[in-house]
Each structure stands twice: as structure tokens, then as C-alpha cells.
Design a protein that fits this description.
Elements lengths: L1 E9 L13 E6 L11 E5 L8 E5 L2 H8 L10 E5 L2 E4 L2 E4 L1
Parallel strand pairs: 3-5
Antiparallel strand pairs: 1-2, 1-4, 2-3, 4-5, 6-7
Length: 96
């Protein structure tokens, strides 16, 4: 599972049928402190995330299949499965 921040939306008029009627977002991995890490993930949104939301991303094809309700392999690896309200560590709270 990856913690990340939504930075953009992907718009595509020609796509595989597994992506039909699905929102695809670009997510930048971040540390629990909110520091941006290298790279970016393209993920199917299942929770209504928006730009600048902190999110949880499942990045396994099998998880994507189960979450999206497919019984066969699909060309989707990463799915956004949660919007993070806050991260609590020790006795301090960090809100996003």
C-alpha cells in the first residue's frame, strides 16, 4: 500500500474497456510527514478523490481485480482505496 497525494487527472478518449466510466488520477508518493517522494502512480479512483487529497493506493493487480469486481485479469494495477483524513504518530497529530 502506498501513501500519496493526488496531483492530476488523466483524460483519455480511447482506452481499454476496463477503464470505461472510471476516473484515473496521477498520485505522487509521499512520506507520512507529507514529503514528496520520487515517481508517480497512475491509479483508478474508487473513492471520489480530488486533486490535493492525500490517498491510500493499493498497487497490486490482484487487489485491483478484487476491488473492481473482476474475475479475470485486467490491465489495471493501482487503485485508490481511501482518502486520508489525518495521520497520527506517537502523541502528535498531523492533518492533511
Amino acid at each position: 500500500m502506498i501513501l500519496g497525494k493526488v496531483v492530476a487527472q488523466v483524460v483519455s478518449t480511447v482506452k481499454h474497456e476496463a477503464y470505461q466510466k472510471r476516473t484515473v488520477l496521477v498520485v505522487r508518493p509521499v512520506s507520512p510527514d507529507g514529503v514528496t517522494r520520487k515517481g508517480a502512480i497512475v491509479a483508478v479512483d474508487t473513492v471520489g478523490a480530488r486533486e490535493n487529497d492525500m490517498v491510500l493506493v493499493a498497487s497490486e493487480g490482484r487487489a485491483a481485480m478484487e476491488i473492481l469486481g473482476y474475475s479475470h485479469r485486467i490491465p489495471i494495477r493501482s487503485v485508490i482505496i481511501g482518502i486520508v483524513d489525518r495521520i497520527t504518530r506517537s502523541n502528535e497529530e498531523q492533518t492533511t
